[in-house]
Specification:
The protein is α/β, with parallel strands linked by helices. It has one domain (3-220): Alpha-Beta Complex (Spore Coat Polysaccharide Biosynthesis Protein SpsA, Chain A). The chain has 6 helices and 13 strands. Strands 1, 4, 5, 6, 8, 9, 10, 11 and 12 form a 9-stranded mixed sheet that branches. The chain has a two-stranded antiparallel sheet with strand order 2-3. Helix 2 (57-64) links the parallel strand 4 (48-53) and strand 5 (73-78).
């Protein structure tokens, strides 16, 4: 199985930290944020990763290279301007192939075990969901007792930014900039999106304050958390 890390965002919410450093390279817990993803993917046995880049993309490419130092192979999908989530995936599909792949938002930190991702079957996606954080109390989706994810319903959970995606979810969309969320909601209407609740540690590293809090938490060491 391959994985894709989304790293083409502008990082506007992280300014001024991202004025000269792209968000994926911001240090947290002693290493760049994106390196945490690479190490977790390699630990799960995934050794082929596609990363899309745009804003300060060459800095990211120079920092990570071909991925061999992390025990994996990185293929780079360059975007002249950010294509949003869906457009970025569509552009990268030739590198990802025809099998389902793991998709990870580059601006989250999560301790999820990715060793044995669920089989999709007839579904088009499977989402990792977490309890709603304080900064997003309304949540995103409803997870029913059968493991299906819905756009409506209560209680609601927050999308963790980790998913298993079937290429066919985006393959027929016209090229250009477009979001993934509308396609997921269409698939939910067809009851073709599964999910599960992740109960471990997760952070949406979307502001300098949350980055600092995660850095402090990681710096404590596993025996003190």
């Amino acid at each position: 199985m391959k994985a894709m890390i989304l790293a083409a965002g502008l990082g506007t919410r992280m300014r001024p930290l991202t004025d000269h450093c792209p968000k994926p390279l911001l240090p947290v817990g002693g290493k760049p944020l994106i390196v945490h993803h690479l190490e977790r993917l390699r630990a799960a046995g995934i050794d082929e990763v596609v990363i899309n880049v745009s804003y300060r993309g060459e800095q990211i490419i120079d920092a990570l290279g071909d991925g061999h130092r992390y025990g994996l192979e990185i293929a780079w999908s360059r975007e002249e301007t950010p294509l949003e989530t869906g457009g970025g995936i569509l552009k990268a599909l030739p590198m990802l192939g025809e099998a389902p792949f793991l998709l990870i938002n580059g601006d989250v930190w999560c301790d999820a075990d990715l060793t044995a991702p669920p089989a999709l079957g007839d579904d088009l996606a499977h989402l990792w969901l977490v309890d709603n954080p304080d900064h997003h109390p309304q949540g995103d989706f409803h997870l029913d007792a059968q493991g299906h994810v819905h756009d409506i319903g209560e209680p609601r959970l927050t999308f963790a930014g980790i998913s298993l995606i079937a290429p066919s979810l985006v393959a027929s969309h016209p090229p250009g900039a477009f979001g993934l969320a509308p396609l997921l909601r269409q698939a939910m209407q067809q009851v073709r999106v599964g999910g599960h609740r992740h109960t471990g540690h997760w952070v949406d590293v979307g502001t300098p304050e949350r980055l600092a809090a995660l850095d402090a938490w990681l710096s404590q060491g596993p025996e003190r958390r």
